[in-house]
Amino acid sequence: MSRDGDTGACKVRRREGDRILTATRGTTVEHWSSVERKPFYHFRPGLPLLTLAPPGCSFRCDHCVNHRVSQYGRDPDSRVAPRDTDPEALVRNAVERGGGIALSYSEPSLAAELTLELGAHARTSGVPVVWKSNGFLTPEAVERVAPVLAAVNNDLKAAGEEEHRRLTGAPLAPVLETILSLKDAGVWVEISTPLIPGTSAEDEQLARIAEFVAGLGPDTPWHLLRFTPTYRMHRQRPTSPERLGRAMRIGRGAGLRYVYVERALSPEGRATRCPGCTSTRAGGRGGQELRPVSRAWGSRWPGSGP
Questions:
Q1: Which of 102, 188, 192, 212 has the CA that lies 20 to 30 A from 177?
Q2: What gap in Å lies between CA 186 and CA 76, rounded to an integer?
Q3: pLDDT tens across 55-65, in order?
Q4: Which helix (H) or strand (E) holds 114?
Q5: Using only C-alpha atoms, what is the Rg of the chain?
Q6: Does the pTM exceed 0.85?
Q7: CB-based burial of residue 3 (10 Å sphere; 0-12 exposed, 13-18 middle, 19+ buried)?
């Protein structure tokens, strides 16, 4: 039981008398970006997203590129000050822009209340609400938020419990369960894996992760993220192009049809290709826009045969 003045482990909630106050109804960020930047490559291509970042995270990753936001209340370098949000006004802004709303950069599951408020306003206006998440939720939390989520890009950082705890400070099993539950609930799911030296960058880890992702369906997009030296791992070397290329081949060898690499392998690493004839359907995902170069014909690709 928490006592008056206590804060939770994630440092975003505090007990005050008989009330629980949260910092995650506010946001540290409010800006527009494209859906491809989350990254989502197979959900509403080209959709502009009003991106919010409520503070805090349930993980403690030493490689976190957003640690100044995610480690709110834990790390003295995190001096962000969340400002209050108006969910109704945010949804109205998204409607006027013809876009959606994303919670990203930190851990959106800590902002479940904000997500539910956004979803309530967005439901009647057709505005999609999406998450970039670590997937560390209880089954009850997934059941509550899944009906208001259109899509989730879920991190899968390691293939084993020991490795996952070492990277994140948290167990792996709830993450896997969340991914499966979101899929079962009809939420569009894409998976991201950062290639962390000594763990997820290794062939054995990548093969096991790819096997799990392929189990969600061979058309599930798998995004391979280059490790960038930062935070407590600033002395490590970035992932080499050769290692990223090897990871792509492992994913395809597991039966995945759509494996992507963010920005480190030129536009080729971000192109969507027909699994049958290898013609390019979409490319140019270098920043804020998607460049279509071919178009599917029903469920078939032109020229790829029956």
A1: 102
A2: 40
A3: 889 898 988 88
A4: helix 112-122
A5: 19
A6: yes
A7: exposed
